[in-house]
Amino acid sequence: MIIGYARVSTTDQNLNLQIDALEKYGCELIYQEKVTGTKKDRPQLAELMTILRPGDKVVIYKLDRISRSTKHLIELSEFFEKKGVEFVSIQDSIDTSTPIGRFFFRILASIAELERDIISERTLAGLKSARARGKKGGRPRVPLENVTIALKMYNSKQYSLNEIVKTTNISISSLYRYLEY
Predict the structure, then answer these.
(1) Arithmetic mean of pLDDT, 169-178
(2) Distance (Å, rounded) from C-alpha 63 to C-alpha 125?
(3) Which of 102, 156, 157, 165 has the CA that lies 20 to 30 A from 137?
(4) Domain ranges of the chain
């Protein structure tokens, strides 16, 4: 089955251009969404992903209609590959049923992996540099005496959570975490 996916970012925009192109391509079913691409929760895309079977083809008008980022695009292409589903972007002339299309996605995957590695490398170098200057990462620890006071205040049931937080400088989530022990 040839399945289309069309998305625009706002309700003011219309999907006509994309739908026309998807219908011309031969899509038998078209999922339509009016939601920003930065949102992780895209119900129509999620539903499309659940119905895919080996041999299906997912068609989009342009790569930026389905993907929030290069990383997300790579994740989608890997998902399609594992499912045995072909992927086509009409405007970008990408078709993973062809050797050139698969090559393009492998190049994208390599670039995304390089990008992740460089970010990781920079982060580690920054942490090492900070440690060399005597700085420690993470949040500062709350003194044990503050924890003890916070627990006593909580257990006395005479203080509100806000009063405990203000007095001891412990966050509510930390207080609950200490209560679990």
Answers:
(1) 87
(2) 34
(3) 165
(4) 2-109, 144-180
